[in-house]
Amino acid sequence: MIDEDNSVNMENADAAAMPRGKGYHHGDLRAAVIAAGMKRLTDGGDAELGLRALARDVGVSATALYRHFPDKEALLDALADEGLRRLGALQAQAWLKAGGGKAGFLATGVAYVRFAHEDPAIFRLSFTRQMPERYREAGTDGGETAFNLLRVGVSQALPQLEAPDVAALHAWSLVHGLAMLILDRRIEWDEARVEQVVAMTFGGFD
């Protein structure tokens, strides 16, 4: 909470805190901060994710961020949601590249585990944050988006199934468990082996 006496008028906060040469337009600052946060997560899992640190990264004062993120929790929620969106996008790309069907379904599972391996800090943050009600009400929960893609994949790859939601949950449990075993260093990352494990379970739906 910012004291009234020390606060900058929020309607002009972005402009007041903007250094010369910056060209943020309406809505760009929020996206820039999220991008900066994702970069910090990618560069190192122990990176500072406070509002002040990210304000420095994008070249504004921390005060300017309060109209977009009222507190650090809101910022972490936004970063987690963005992580889930990136995961969903990678799975969709993998599905299309493989040509859909069972090959596409397998590719989405491998893409899930690969994302966890390549961006562990983003993956952990995305799945340890409980998405607040405001995201669900706005229909912007990235986790639901990713699961809906998986459910559609199950229905298209295995149309004979009577319970695609159960099959989707089974598939999700498999790839998430495998991802966590790799992140916790219980097993070594080996993409060929990941493909074998995912194929065994996904193929078991026949």
Sheet of most strands: none
Average pLDDT works out at: 79
Give, in order, the helices and strands. HHHHHHHHHH
C-alpha Rg, in Å? 20 Å
Straight-line distance between termini: 55 Å
Q: Please, how many helices?
A: 10
Structural class: mainly alpha
Low-confidence stretches: 1-26
Helix content: 55-70%
Number of strands: 0
- Bin the strand percentage: under 5%
Cα shape: elongated
Describe the structure.
- There is one protein chain.
- The protein has 206 residues and is an all-alpha fold.
- 67% of the residues lie in helices and 0% in strands.
- The protein is built from ten helices and no strands.
- The protein has helices at residues 13-17, 28-43, 51-58, 72-98, 101-118, 120-128, 133-138, 142-157, 164-183, 191-203.
- Helix 5 runs antiparallel to helix 8, helix 5 (101-118) crosses helix 10 and helix 9 (164-183) packs antiparallel against helix 10 (191-203).
- The protein is elongated, with a radius of gyration of 20 Å.
- The protein starts with 12 loop residues before the first helix and ends with a helix.
- Residues 1-26 have low confidence and may be disordered.
Question: Helices, strands, pairings?
Answer:
Elements: H1 13-17, H2 28-43, H3 51-58, H4 72-98, H5 101-118, H6 120-128, H7 133-138, H8 142-157, H9 164-183, H10 191-203
What structural keywords apply?
0% strand; mainly alpha; single chain; disordered N terminus; 206 residues
Question: What's the short version?
Answer:
It contains 10 helices and no strands. It has helices spanning 13-17, 28-43, 51-58, 72-98, 101-118, 120-128, 133-138, 142-157, 164-183, 191-203.
